[in-house]
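hey can u check if this looks right to u? its 433 residues, i copy pasted from the old doc so theres a chance i mangled smth
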Amino acid sequence: MTPAPHRSHTDDLLSFIAASPSPYHVVASAAQRLEKAGFRELRGTDDWTGATGGLFVSRAGALIAWYVPEGAAAHTPFRIVGTHTDSPNLRIKPAPDTGTSGWRQIGVEIYGGVPLNTWLDRDLGISGRLALRGPDGAPRSRLVQIDEPLLRVPQLAIHLDRSVNEGVALDRQRHIAPIWALGEPREGELLRRVAAAAGEDPADVLGWDLMLHDIQPPGYLGVDREFVVASRLDNQVSVHAGVTALVDAATGAGQPAFIPVLAAFDHEEVGSGSETGAQSPMLERILSRSVAARGGSDEDWSRALAGAFCVSADMAHAVHPNYSERHDPDHRPLPNGGPTVKVNVNQRYATDSTGIAMFTAAAERAGAPWQPFVSNNAMPCGTSIGPLTAARLGVTTVDVGVPGLSMHSARELCGVRDPGYLAAILTTIMVGD
């Protein structure tokens, strides 16, 4: 059976995932945990001078959090854990109310690399945020999470498509509008339903960022319950581990030797090119401002970066038992064998030997196993925020991740031990033991 400490960590992870169906909810869940640990939120318009202790900045679906020990010098190096809050899914169009042949449907767009067959015949809810008219005329936001079986993308019966098991691709444009009622489309119906769930007047809704999510709760799988199964393991496993590590570093017995940082970006699944993505100046500006807030100069900023280290944590591929030929024959990570260190010489990952040495040394100190990962030469390699962060900040970066199956599926799988192993290693790196 699984050791209790790992089960305790994954129990908490499953609660985190259940409360976080959208990137905006991920940020809210992380912020709630940070505030409980004594962190306080800073606004961009605040005066940050002299700010120490646990601090964080949130913006839409992204969050940057850090801890400044009392008396830390302005040039103290950073220990950064980079993650992302978004997952591939179906997102609701601006004019969503549609339908055909006597069915009322909702128009959606495909966000990221979605294996569409995994979204068929699943009970789907709605989540995201509403932009609302505020009392002073300025927009305000409200999160919404409807964990009810409202919608479904129905599979075409095999009697009407005998080729369905031959790998014929779905028509991405025509056949993914979920059904939710019978009858003709009613303009504004979705907005009224979502606004009511949020306790708001539909007339006050000025815009939205809404998406669908599978309402099946996360859980355990296997004879000994040795696997975790859930939506959005990619990449909430890493966000949760990063939050856990940062809180542990800030509240532990000793003071960290570095400035531990959690950078949870949005839009990684579509290239990170947004104001809250890893390609944006968000992290660079916040970290440089934190140096200046401690009285630091440009020289202090350069010194802090020169000694910095970044761990880019994103999900990785475990070897698939039915398609093992698609994996490198000498690199076949398995669940519960520890996080993988991801290498790609074409810089799809930013890992080099220095980064490997720093991460694996921390794994040894944490008493956690790890596994090497490299893609099969005949298969295209994925990427992460690691190369973007390394190129933008010029810091040593290592790409790592918990190995799993069914990546980007509506329901993914990983080992029950690996999320805890990752959190333990990240804590060791952040503390600097």
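The CA atoms of residues 320 and 405 lie 7 Å apart.
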